[in-house]
Structure formats: C-alpha cells, structure tokens
Amino acid sequence: MFTEISYSLVQIDSKRSIRDAMEVLNKIDERFLVVLNREKKLLGTITDGDIRRALLKNIDINKKVELCMNKNPIFSYENSKNYKSLFKKMKSFIKFLPILNKDKKIIAILLENVLSTNKIALVMAGGYGSRLGQITKNTPKPLLKIGPKTMLDIILEKLEKSGYEEIYISTHYLHDRIKKFLNNRKSLSKIKIIYEPKPLGTAGCISKIKNVNFDYLTVLNGDVVSDISLDALNEFHLEKKYDLTLTVAHFSTEIPFGVVDLDSKFQFKTLKEKPTKKYFILSGIYCLSKSICDLVTESYTDMPELINNSKRLGYKIGIFPIYEYWNDIGTSKALNKENKRSKI
What we know:
Layout: E1 2-5, E2 11-13, H1 18-25, E3 32-36, E4 42-47, H2 48-56, E5 76-77, H3 83-89, E6 96-100, E7 106-112, E8 119-124, E9 145-146, E10 149-150, H4 151-161, E11 166-171, H5 175-184, E12 190-195, E13 216-221, E14 224-226, H6 230-239, E15 244-254, E16 258-262, E17 268-273, E18 276-289, H7 290-293, H8 303-312, E19 317-321, E20 326-328, H9 332-342
Parallel strand pairs: 2-3, 5-6, 8-11, 8-13, 11-12, 15-19
Antiparallel strand pairs: 1-7, 3-4, 6-7, 9-10, 13-18, 14-20, 15-18, 16-17
C-alpha cells in the first residue's frame, strides 16, 4: 500500500526560488518537493499544482518557494502506527507523508500507491495546415520533420511514455500519408485511426469514441510541441475533480502605440507608451471527462464551442498553466524555430 523513498530525491532548500523548484520537478519522476531548512527540518511541501496555481496568481517565480508552499503539511513521526489515518486525511491525488525523527528532522517519505485509471488519448491530425503554404501541399502538418522525427512521432512517444495504452488519431487531409506512417511505425501503444470524410472541427471527432470505455480523455492538437508533463496534467484533473481541464500558455504582445486610458466621464486618465499585454491562451491540450465527451454530437464542433457549452451547462472547468516549453507549429517561422531548437 505504501512505498518508502528517500527525502534526498525530492528535497529543496527554503532559500531556493520557485523557478528552482520548477527545474527540480522537471528532472524527477515525482511531482512534489519537501521544503527544508539548513538543519533538514521540514518547513513545508510544494507540489506541481502549487506552482501552477502560483502562476495563475502572477506570483513572481524568482521569489522564494515559501511563497507558494503548503506551510502546514500532514506528517508523521517514525514508529507511528497511524499512517493509514493520516493518508485518509489527504485530499490530493498523489499522497505522500514525510516521516520525522524525534528532533523533527525528516528521515524518509511514504508514498501511497496510486490506483491506475482508464485513460485514452486523441490526437487531432486532420487539419490542412494552410498557414504553412506550400510546405504542407504534399505532407500533412503532423508529419513535418522536427530534426530526425515527425511532429506526430514526438507526440506519440510522449503519450506512450505517460502510459497511454490506447491512442486515437483523427485524420482527414492526406489521410493515407498518416495511415502509412502509422503502419510502418513500431508503436508501443494501440493506435486507432478515425477518418473524417468531412471535417468535424477541432472537437467533433470526439463523438466517434463516445462509446469507448474510459475515465477521461486527453486531447492534443497534432501541431503542438511541448515539454508539458501529461502525468501532472492528469493528476491535476483528477485531484480537482474537473469535468474539463484546459491547459494554457502565456502569450505577450506589445501594442506599438501609446494607449490612452479614460475615466468614467471619458476624460483623460493616463497614457501608457507601447504597453505589453499578457494573456493566457489555449495551448491545444485538454483533459475531458466522459460527461463532457457525451455532449459532442456527430456534427461540426470546434473546441471553443464545446468549452463554452460546458460552462453554460454548469460543468466544472479547470485551468492548468504551462510553465514548460510550448510551441504551436502553425507557421514556417514556428517550424524553423523548432528545428533550430532540436539541434541544440
């Protein structure tokens, strides 16, 4: 029921920054850290979800980890008999219990073994890639090369690494090219193609798998490259019991003019010279519960329409900010950028 791990694998000093915690989490399998002082005494804990909530609050990631850590974590002393009861108090999907000695110094961590969930994935690979012009005239966008691999191969490897045993690929434009690629690929997961004779939009093909048995569905656009942790996304979705989880990326744009703000009487208030506006944008990666998938009919449906309908019907929608690398390969500029990155 429990697995013991060394705290040295997941520790971070309280003087380190949130950015440092992000970097550590990206290098380890676990998605939590214990925050210690110089004497190795437990000050708090910080999870992947804590960091992403800090991003939504616009907390400066260069500040100390103490700003977003849980300062009152559940812990136990060694030789305790109440481990089970302590785990029951925890609300997080990934449950971990720091173990302290009589001097209140951490000596180990207990992990509760997580029950497996029935998850499947859907890769949207049917688009025309029209923004790329002649580049996609004879090659579907998901099969464009980034270094030695195609975008589709990079996405599939990511899904396979995260334990998706069943992956659906929606296709339309140059369908036979994608089918041939998949037939020649030595896939670790079971791959199934959904062919759309007529495009169904960025969400319509979900209707083709509604009768499949699954707990939740992960949807990925076939032209998005990201270092996002799918395991962290899945755990976030399950822990918060969301019906639909949207992953969002930061996007900044500079207005090349002086912007005038007016007061309530339409009189001059302030002038901001070439301000930079920051937004959260859809990243093209989603987690959907079965109930959300059941809303999709066999007609043309884009993802924004499904999201808005879900909100209108009262479903619980969560936001999962991406702090990892992310790139939408929609233009030749973005494709060139990705190819340069692959050579680093």
